[in-house]
Design a protein that fits this description.
By secondary structure, the protein is an all-alpha fold. The chain has 5 helices and no strands.
Length: 213
């Protein structure tokens, strides 16, 4: 039985011959058991991202060490650094998800606190992704400068236009598409499951409607 089924049964009026309603302890046990499905989905998503980033870091380090051109070496190093930040972020997320199995007191309050921690990490991931847009622009500048057949002075008119175009204008144009794509990505992997958990916890906490006579 999923949390949604538990919530519907909890909210429906009990028939005359129904057994006595669940007490708080029984409801807490059911909530603990049924929340496992949502938490397992969150864990799978985090593990998938973790292994993907480990692979990215390994490939980026190989690129940084084996590439023959400067801009590829720098790109590999930057990508490895970004992947390392993401790995730390994902380890932190998995740590929070593991703590969901170990409530210290009130289960609902415990899950809500950890849910808030996960939301904070997801916001960090979103902002970190957008902050990488100008970093990518700087890598593009390095690529153009290092591969150009003629010397490009960054203080010249063309050099200033190049930097502004790749570091300011291009990231500005990409901001909305990347933001939208990142939101959808995070919502698919994490947000939809957290939304469901929050809704279920909120509705289960609502007082049972008084019986009418």
């Amino acid at each position: 039985m999923e949390l949604d089924d538990l919530r519907r049964q909890w909210q429906q009026p009990a028939p005359a011959d129904a057994p006595a309603p669940l007490d708080a302890a029984a409801l807490t046990r059911l909530l603990a058991r049924q929340s496992d499905g949502i938490i397992d989905k969150l864990r799978r998503s985090a593990r998938l991202e973790l292994w993907a980033n480990i692979g990215i870091v390994a490939g980026a380090l190989a690129l940084a060490m084996l590439a023959q051109t400067l801009w590829l070496q720098v790109a590999g190093g930057v990508l490895a650094a970004i992947g390392t930040v993401c790995i730390v972020y994902l380890y932190r997320k998995l740590h929070l998800l593991r703590r969901m199995d170990d409530p210290t007191a009130d289960l609902r309050a415990h899950l809500l606190r950890l849910d808030g921690g996960l939301r904070t990490l997801i916001r960090f991931y979103y902002r970190f992704t957008l902050a990488m847009l100008p970093v990518g622009g700087l890598l593009n500048v390095l690529m153009v400068v290092s591969t150009s057949k003629r010397e490009i002075g960054l203080t010249s008119g063309f050099g200033i236009a190049l930097v502004l175009g790749l570091v300011v204008v291009l990231p500005a144009l990409l901001y909305l598409p990347v933001a939208s794509l990142t939101r959808r990505y995070l919502q698919r992997l994490y947000g939809q499951h957290l939304d469901r958990l929050e809704a279920s916890l909120h509705e289960l906490a609502e007082p049972e409607p008084a019986a009418t006579t």
